[in-house]
Specification:
single chain, alpha/beta, eight-stranded parallel sheet, 17 helices, binds 1-O-alpha-D-glucopyranosyl-D-fructose
Length: 551
């Protein structure tokens, strides 16, 4: 397997709105990130993925872009961006920007022109269709609820929006649109950035609107929109026009990309993307009604996602290893135990993130165990997905309070509460009023209180990241799940011609004896306690996690 910086590098994702506010307006900004570059570097990460910082009306917090070549006023200006990029480079790190090319804001000048008349030169930058006697062109639904078509009174036609009504989908059939996106990519690459995370890139090629009904029963919404007929033509053209000309990294966000389609995106001979975010584990608890209709799942189902993807891309292609981001609950709450075993399970998840094959992604705040938040009212939430849910519940006359626990458990705002830097007022995030309520547990859970604690989650992340860098078999080595059906333990072997490691994670509150014939080994890392191997088994205490290396 050829070594690459984007395979070995650890990525740290920043959601700028919630990271650090430097000017007291309650909103994180670029200068706030500049102020924390030494902290970020101290984690040992190599690449920063910066969520959108472009001009935006913030209907979807920056994922609705109105000007791709200017910085959102609340975040600062282009000079500060240049200073941030220089600071990242000066510390030997790299920068990924977030490319949102499936849609723009409805306040983008392209859309303002496109909607103005049916014969405007930019009309087919977007997807317009006649309805059928007052009804939408087809039954497609928005990811954020409701119809995926909105009638615009100016011309009486409907435009497609797979996300909010303020995020009209771009028409990638139009070569002018594709060239506009390629020019935007080159604008930022020529400034010196090192690549892109590509927002819902799997959706940019649309199926025929007339014969692809959205089927609430059998085909997931993502499958209806993902992997359209020309997706690979577009990505190969993008690669030829842009990526092939830079030493850069691409990671495609790919809801709907599955094991049967993955290699078409990331196979090395495909000249498309370096890797994708797949969502098998991220949608694992989404029931028939989506994320707010959660269903139980087992550890074997969770483990199978990682084993299947490792097998799928073994030898050709590359994957991402992530457990959270700005769209999902906090990992220690979702996949760990944020109560009695908060510290142990947070460290277990860090060990998992750093011991599987693929590029490791760490989401801001997870490195010191930030948890889900418990809001009391729908008024406390910001996320448009939750605002739309509220409207739907109110329209159905539902009791909103009944849904608060589900929204607290599953909502995206869990990952968007301001970073808890210390135990001072507003957790050191802002001197003003934070745009989103800070998790009240900041007095106990914050970076500063862990900085000098050798046993803290924060210092465990630092240690685990170094271990991954010093043991490249954990990056490139082979992988085998040792007991796929085990309901408590995720145990796997990692190896190559020179080294062999065994990794054990007890994802449970009970003590487990796990069979192993390993006896002659060195301990690489353990989250707590010490390894106890005897009589052909290793004793794993609740949420205990360790890596051993055979001699
Ligand atoms: O999200 C795409 C997406 O559909 C999934 O991540 C997830 O299902 C969604 O957030 C609903 O829960 C990307 C961005 O990550 C997200 O923040 C944006 O809201 C969305 O695209 C639209 O740009």
């Amino acid at each position: 397997m050829e070594r690459k910086w984007w395979k070995e590098g650890i990525v740290y994702q920043i959601y700028p709105r919630s990271f650090n506010d430097s000017d007291g307006d309650g909103i994180g900004d670029l200068r706030g990130i500049i102020q924390k570059l030494d902290y970020i570097k101290s984690l040992g990460v190599d690449i920063i993925w910066l969520c959108p910082v472009y001009q935006s009306p913030n209907d979807d917090n920056g994922y609705d872009i109105s000007d791709y070549r200017n910085i959102m006023d609340e975040f600062g200006n282009m000079q500060e961006f240049d200073e941030l990029l220089a600071g990242i480079k000066a510390r030997g790190m790299r920068l990924l920007m977030d490319l949102v090319a499936n849609h723009t804001s409805d306040e983008h000048e392209w859309f303002l022109e496109s909607k103005s008349s049916v014969d405007n030169p930019k009309r087919d930058y977007y997807i317009w269709r006649q309805g059928d006697n007052g009804t939408p062109p087809n039954n497609w639904k928005s990811i954020f609820g409701g119809d995926a078509w909105l009638k615009d009174e100016t011309t009486g036609e409907y435009f497609l929006h797979l996300f909010t009504t303020k995020q009209p989908d771009l028409n990638w059939e139009n070569p002018n649109v594709r060239n506009e996106i390629y020019d935007i990519m080159k604008f930022w690459l020529d400034k010196g950035i090192d690549g892109f995370r590509m927002d819902v890139i799997s959706f940019i090629s649309k199926r025929n609107y007339d014969d692809t009904p959205y089927d609430e029963l059998n085909v997931s919404i993502n499958k209806t929109y993902a992997n359209g007929p020309k997706i690979h033509d577009y990505l190969q053209e993008m690669n030829k026009e842009v990526m092939a000309n830079y030493d850069m990294m691409t990671v495609g966000e790919g809801p709907g990309i599955d094991l049967t389609t993955a290699r078409d995106y990331v196979g090395e001979e495909r000249n498309e993307l370096n890797m994708v975010f797949h969502f098998g584990h991220m949608f694992i608890d989404h029931g028939p009604g989506g994320k707010f209709d959660p269903v139980p799942y087992s550890l074997p189902e969770f483990k199978k996602v990682f084993s299947d993807w490792d097998k799928c891309l073994r030898g050709n292609g590359w994957s991402s290893i992530f457990l959270g981001n700005h769209d999902f609950p906090r990992i220690v709450s979702r996949f760990g135990n944020d109560g009695q075993y908060w510290k142990e399970s947070a460290k277990l998840l860090a060990t998992m993130l750093c011991s599987l094959r693929g590029t490791t992604y760490v989401y801001q705040g997870d490195e010191f165990g930030m948890t889900n938040v418990e809001y009391e009212s729908f008024d406390d939430f910001d996320d448009v997905e939750i605002r739309n849910l509220r409207k739907a519940l109110e329209a159905n006359g539902e009791d909103l309070q009944k849904f608060i626990p589900i929204v607290n458990k599953q909502g995206r705002d869990n990952a968007r509460t301001p970073i808890q830097w210390d135990d001072s007022e507003n957790a050191g995030f802002t001197t003003g009023t934070p745009w989103l309520k800070i998790n009240p547990n900041y007095s106990d859970i914050n970076a500063a209180s862990q900085e000098n604690d050798p046993d803290s989650i924060l210092n465990f992340y630092r240690e685990m990241i170094q271990i991954r860098k010093q043991n490249l078999t954990l990056v490139y080595g082979d992988y085998q799940d040792l007991d796929p059906e085990n309901n408590e333990v995720y145990a796997y072997r990692r190896w190559d011609d020179d080294n062999e490691y065994f990794v054990f994670h007890n994802f449970s509150e009970i003590e487990v004896q796990f069979p192993t014939d390993v006896s002659d080994y060195n301990l690489v890392v353990i989250n707590y306690g010490s390894p106890e191997i005897s009589n052909g088994a290793i004793k794993l205490n609740p949420w205990q996690s360790l890596i051993i290396k055979t001699k």
